[in-house]
Design goal:
This protein is 31% helix and 27% strand. By secondary structure, it is of the alpha/beta class. It folds into two domains: 98 residues, no CATH class; 210 residues, Rossmann fold (3-Layer(aba) Sandwich), CATH 3.40.50.
C-alpha cells in the first residue's frame, strides 16, 4: 500500500491498481451479484408479455429502440452478443424473451463467467446461449459471423484506457456488426461529470464516503443492490481515471472477502460521440437512465450539453449507435 496525494492533500492509503488488474478478482466476482441486485429492477418485469414497470427500464429500452426495429427490418435469424456479459442478466433475459434469437455472451473474467453459466443453467437457458471468452481487441478476427446488435452495458467500456486503445476496440465492435441500416451497438458510461465532481469534493476533504453518502455513488438503475457499496478513493489526472473501492456491507462478509478495486476512465458524452464517429459509427440517440436526452447548446464555445427534459441527472448514459456505410 502507498500514500498518495489527491489535489495536493494527503489521502487514505490505496493500492497500486492498474487497468489490467480489473479482470480476475475473485472477491469482486463474489460481490457482483449483490451489487447488481434485483434483476427485475434493472431489466423490468413482464405480465402477459408486456412490461408493467412505472418507468422504462433496460428490457423495454432495448425492445423499443433496438430489437423491434431490427425485427421489422430483418428477414434472417437475429444474432446478438453481450460483449461484457458479467453474471449473465442480459443474456438470460434475452434467451427467455426472444427464443428465436441466436445469442452470444462474452465474459473475459473466469470467475464472473462461471457465475454467468450457473445463472443460465438455473434459468434453463444454458443451451440457448453461446458463452465466449474473447478479448475485445481481437474479436472481429475470432468470429466469421456478424451480429444484428451488440451490447456493452454496465460501464465496462471505461476499463479501456487511452483514446488509441478505445478506438481500436470500437473498430472491432463496428466490424462485428452486419452491414445494414438497422444494426446497432448499444454502449453505456457512467455520467462522469457529476460523479467526478462529487468524488473530487469528497477527496479534497481527505475522507471516504460513509453510510450517509454512499448513495451519491450508487449505480442505479444498472446496479440496485444494497449488499455491496462502491465509492471512489482516488483520482488520477495522468490517466484521467478514478479508482473505485468495493466491499460488502455485511461485516462478516467484509472481513472474509476484503476490498476489491476497479480503475475506470472518465469519458464524457461528447468524447464518446467523437470516438464512435472515428470508428465509423454514428450516434443515433442518447439516453440517460433509459430516458431520451436532448442537446442544450451553450455560448462561449462551451460545446454541447446533453440533458434529460425532466431535469433529472442520470447515473448512466446509454448510446445507441449505427454503422456508417461505405
Amino acid at each position: 500500500m502507498s500514500r498518495k496525494k489527491v489535489h495536493g492533500r494527503p489521502n487514505i492509503e490505496i493500492p497500486k491498481h492498474g487497468f489490467n488488474d480489473n479482470v480476475g478478482q475473485k472477491a469482486l466476482s463474489e460481490m457482483w451479484p449483490y451489487f447488481v441486485g434485483d434483476w427485475d429492477k434493472r431489466w423490468g418485469k413482464r405480465e402477459d408479455g408486456e412490461f408493467v414497470d412505472d418507468k422504462v427500464l433496460e428490457g423495454k429500452f432495448l425492445e423499443e429502440n433496438v430489437i423491434v426495429p431490427i425485427i421489422e427490418n430483418s428477414r434472417e435469424k437475429i444474432r446478438c452478443m453481450d460483449l461484457a456479459a458479467g453474471i449473465g442478466l442480459e443474456a438470460t433475459r434475452l434467451a427467455q424473451e426472444y427464443p428465436d434469437f441466436s445469442i452470444y455472451a462474452n465474459e473475459l473474467d473466469d470467475h464472473l463467467r462461471s457465475i454467468l453459466e450457473q445463472n443460465l443453467a438455473d434459468n434453463k437457458v444454458k443451451r440457448r446461449v453461446n458463452v465466449q471468452k474473447r478479448m475485445w481487441e481481437d474479436m472481429c478476427f475470432d468470429f466469421n459471423k456478424r451480429f444484428d446488435f451488440l451490447l456493452n452495458l454496465g460501464n465496462a467500456f471505461p476499463y479501456i484506457n487511452g483514446e488509441a486503445e478505445q478506438l481500436k476496440v470500437l473498430n472491432q465492435f463496428r466490424n462485428l456488426l452486419k452491414e445494414n441500416e438497422s444494426s446497432r451497438l448499444v454502449i453505456d458510461l457512467r455520467n462522469w461529470g457529476p460523479l467526478a465532481r462529487r468524488a473530487s469534493a469528497l477527496l479534497n476533504k481527505d475522507r471516504l464516503p460513509d453510510a450517509s453518502n454512499f448513495s451519491a455513488f450508487s449505480g442505479g438503475p444498472m446496479y440496485n443492490g444494497d449488499g455491496v457499496h462502491g465509492y471512489p478513493v482516488a483520482i488520477d489526472r495522468n490517466t484521467n481515471s478514478l479508482l473505485f473501492r468495493y466491499g460488502f456491507t455485511d461485516e462478516e462478509k467484509a472481513r472474509e472477502y476484503g476490498d476489491s478495486y476497479l480503475r475506470m476512465t472518465k469519458i464524457n458524452i461528447n468524447q464518446m460521440i467523437q470516438l464512435l464517429y472515428s470508428a465509423r459509427l454514428y450516434t443515433k440517440q442518447i439516453f440517460g437512465d433509459f430516458v431520451p436526452m436532448v442537446p442544450k447548446e451553450h455560448d462561449r464555445g462551451m460545446g454541447t450539453e446533453w440533458i434529460r427534459p425532466d431535469g433529472v441527472k442520470p447515473q448512466f448514459i446509454q448510446f445507441v449507435a449505427g454503422i456508417m456505410r461505405d
